[in-house]
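cron nightly-structures :: item 1 of 1
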Amino acid sequence: MSKGAWRVGWVRPLLFAGAAGFVLVLMPSVLAAYPLILLSHMLVFSIACLGLNLLYGTAGSFSLGHATYFGVAAYTGAFLIRFSPVESFEPYLASGVFASTLFATVIGLVSVRTTKIFFAILTLAFSMMVYSLVINGAVFRLFGGLGWALYLLGEGAMYVPRLTILGASYGPTDFVAAFYYVIVTAFIASVLVLWRISRSPFGQALRAIRENETRAAFIGIPVWQYRWYAFILSGFFAGLAGGLYGQLARQITPEQLHWIFSMQLVLATVMGGTRHFLGPVLGAFAFVGLEEVASQWTVGRYAMFGLLLILAVFFFPRGIAGGFAILMDAMKRYRS
């Protein structure tokens, strides 16, 4: 890549990363503990939605099973902590991301041979298979009597203690801010990497596959191989988000493997706008925010949440990012 091409490809994401990083770094000194935790959830959810959108928005493959990679990463790290002397966050996260990427590699190799609704059904089927292995305790039995006792104690849920970060231990009051910076670093890195992927020849090829798979194959693009690579990358980032979430929430439940959670990722991504790079980020922030608002109603919480989602979709039929783009175009026409 030439020096000029490098500058064209990186200047915008680096400027965004610098501005976003500056604002995000200031948040611990501005926000109280609970709002900071809520912001952390938004950032983690954003990573998962960005990863999903590489497969859905860019490559055009609609997955209903991305909860698998999110949950597998969290559970793998939790099992490592529980059944080994590891007490640090780094191997916890690395093991989870490795497991989620491995699952995405195997499941994707089978799934990408199909297209459209059959692809979605196949990813859903694999997702529910993995979910069933956890909810009925089959995975816990692999660890013998202690594993089965752990399953009976939490009914599939697992507790994750506060881990050391780069060898440093933090108390309850300091851990939230320290781990927030870890999440911000992962978020900025994910944005930069996925931005370059989306603007690379590989990303252009994925868009060609999305628009017309037959034409893409005719001009020499290895269609199923590229869709497989996108699937693996998408599973990697979903696993990264899952590992971060496990330490942030300190508890992992089988619901994080269920297809309903996959639909939440899809809904947030679509609500933000799949054809805009930062659309999934806006959708993740909006989704978590709406969920927080709806939680104020102890009775009819899900009805209120559904109403808020309907209003959001009604006012932003092209996604939040699409709505902003239309507004900016209207402002430019007005000025001219």
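cron nightly-structures :: done
The chain has one domain: 3-273.
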